[in-house]
Design brief:
single chain; alpha/beta; 13 strands
């Protein structure tokens, strides 16, 4: 009897087929959710694949362009473009200091999900940017830190970076660059805006050490940082050759940071060889390397007069011969110009009508051009006067009376007088005839433009600097363009310090004898601290005393202290 009610009670409540277990109901819901999910996910993916990233025209807004290009390229998740966080501001005391959170409130706030998420936001892959103050949409600097940048991502950057008109700096820190991706990145740089001047590739060791490609002769980079890239002596050799060789020289790079690498004495010697003929680098850091006394002496040797090698002497003689031949050709061309003017004048006043017609046509075209340029430059009143004078000349020509022999002779005498001595020819008045005026203007403008182009493009080779001959050897003045040299935390002893003391003494004497303030003056800042010598040694103290007045920052602080606390 006791079993019957249980069977009777349970039979009407028996579950339907397929729903006997609770797990069956859950699996049914899971199947429905699984069937609904592919419909919502696959549809946008199909739409993204139909879009071509090459067809997209960038607008110059990095956040919009980067997101659109990543979506078109098939990325579901990609880094966000965010504004670079500023350093934490100092604590400002509030009006009521007594209002402080309790310990329980602090504990509950620290354990909340939102606080945990906010703490790990910093470690998510992002593209941090610095914006222009005047326009918040213009990106000035780009920072990418701690996530791998592959060829696919560089393809997206090759589309959106050239559209940034005010881009100045690119920082890539530990982005896993390889030799292939570095070559792709270097190919993107010429496509960017002309304002891009600073590139930082820190924490990206490459076995091939092909960083010297960033310092090619056609590179526009002025500031380059290659810290913590495991650069050894071989990499330093490539960088030294990129700074300068006997036949090539980098003329754009201003600062080079090679700190925290593995450069030894041999690598420092290669860098010193690059500084022999380089006259553009102002700032060099070799801190935290493995440079000993041999490499330090090579670096110090470049900062004072050094002996030229045989190949350098031969190249110097060749350059002097070329310079002399160019100067002689210029002097000959200057002397030939008055004779050419006489010949052109004789042809213009000769018996040949065809020549006179051709010269008349060309001179008339030149007069029209000169009158247009003068009308654009001169005020309205003066332009009217010149037009009237031109009308008088046209009336005289229409009258049919040709120039008399006396007038032609007078014109020839004037032109020959103006051609003597100087190359520049004074302007003739409009009433004296068109042909004479335009011929003089044409010759003068052509010659002056050639002179200006020669002065603008001609760069002085360091081998052509004044040299000193001693004991049958040729000594060239040292590199006095380098202003900042950092050799902090290397392996230099007092032997290496002696070389730097000699170089600093020479540069101090040179700056004293120099009358004008223009031109290079030598080192203004030299850091040799934390090396293998006692900080109180006599040589190091002497170097500090000589460099103190040359350092503009320390000398200014000393002046401020003396004025604030007079003795």
């Amino acid at each position: 009897m006791s079993n019957e009610p249980s069977t009777v009670g349970t039979s009407p409540r028996a579950p339907r087929p397929g729903t006997q277990k609770s797990s069956g109901s859950t699996t049914k819901k899971g199947e429905r959710a699984a069937k609904e999910k592919p419909g919502t996910v696959l549809q946008p993916v199909g739409e993204e694949e139909s879009k071509n990233p090459e067809e997209y025209q960038c607008s110059g807004v990095l956040e919009t362009d980067f997101a659109e290009l990543c979506t078109r390229s098939g990325y579901i998740e990609f880094p966000k473009v965010v504004i670079r966080p500023r350093p934490h501001q100092a604590f400002v005391a509030s009006a009521s200091l007594s209002e402080k959170p309790n310990a329980e409130e602090r504990l509950s706030a620290s354990c909340s999900i939102n606080s945990l998420e906010s703490k790990y936001v910093f470690f998510r892959p992002t593209i941090q940017v610095e914006l222009e103050q005047e326009d918040n949409k213009l990106v000035k600097e780009i920072y990418i830190r701690g996530w791998k940048v592959d060829d696919r991502m560089l393809g997206i950057f090759s589309k959106c970076l050239p559209a940034l008109s005010q881009l100045q700096s690119i920082y890539l820190w530990k982005v896993g660059l390889t030799d292939k991706t570095l070559a792709t990145f270097i190919a993107i740089l010429p496509l960017c805006s002309s304002t891009l001047r600073k590139v930082s590739l820190e924490g990206n060791p490459i076995p091939e050490q092909s960083y010297h490609k960033l310092m090619a002769s056609d590179s526009t980079i002025t500031h380059l940082s290659l810290r913590n890239n495991n650069i050894d002596d071989y990499g330093a050799q490539l960088l030294g050759q990129a700074l300068s060789t006997l036949h090539s020289c980098n003329r754009t790079l201003v600062s080079l940071n090679l700190g925290f690498n593995h450069i030894g004495d041999e690598g420092a010697s290669y860098i010193a060889d690059g500084l022999r003929l380089n006259r553009s680098l102002l700032w060099l850091s070799l801190a935290h390397n493995r440079i000993q006394d041999k490499g330090a002496l090579k670096l110090a040797e470049v900062l004072r007069p050094f002996e030229l090698t045989h190949t350098e002497v031969v190249e110097r003689r060749r350059l002097l011969l070329e310079k002399g031949s160019q100067e002689r050709s210029r002097s000959v061309s200057r002397n030939l110009i008055p004779g050419q003017l006489r010949e052109s004048l004789l042809l213009r006043h000769g018996d040949s009508r065809e020549k006179s017609q051709m010269t008349g046509i060309s001179s008339a075209a030149l007069v029209d051009k000169s009158e247009k340029t003068q009308a654009a430059k001169t005020p309205k009143g003066l332009g009217k006067k010149k037009e009237k004078a031109g009308e008088v000349v046209k009336k005289d020509e229409k009258s049919g009376s040709g120039p008399s022999p006396t007038q032609g002779a007078a014109k020839k005498e004037d032109m020959t007088k103006s051609a003597k001595g100087k190359v520049t020819i004074p302007e003739q008045k409009l009433t004296k005839g068109k042909n004479i005026k335009t011929g003089g203007k044409e010759k003068r403008s052509i010659f002056l433009e050639s002179e200006l182009v020669a002065e603008a493009t001609e760069m002085v080779n360091p081998l052509l600097e004044p040299v000193e001959h001693r004991d049958g050897k040729v000594f060239m003045p040292g590199n006095k363009v380098l202003l900042h040299l950092n050799l902090l935390r290397n392996r230099i002893t007092e032997v290496g310090l002696e070389g730097f003391l000699t170089a600093v003494r020479y540069q101090v004497q040179f700056s004293k004898h120099k009358t004008s303030s223009k031109g290079p003056v030598g080192l203004l800042w030299l850091s040799l601290a934390k090396n293998y010598f006692h900080p109180q040694c006599h040589t190091y103290t002497m170097i500090q005393e000589l460099m103190l007045p040359r350092d503009p920052i320390k000398s200014k602080l000393k002046e401020e202290e003396s004025t604030a606390f007079p003795t």
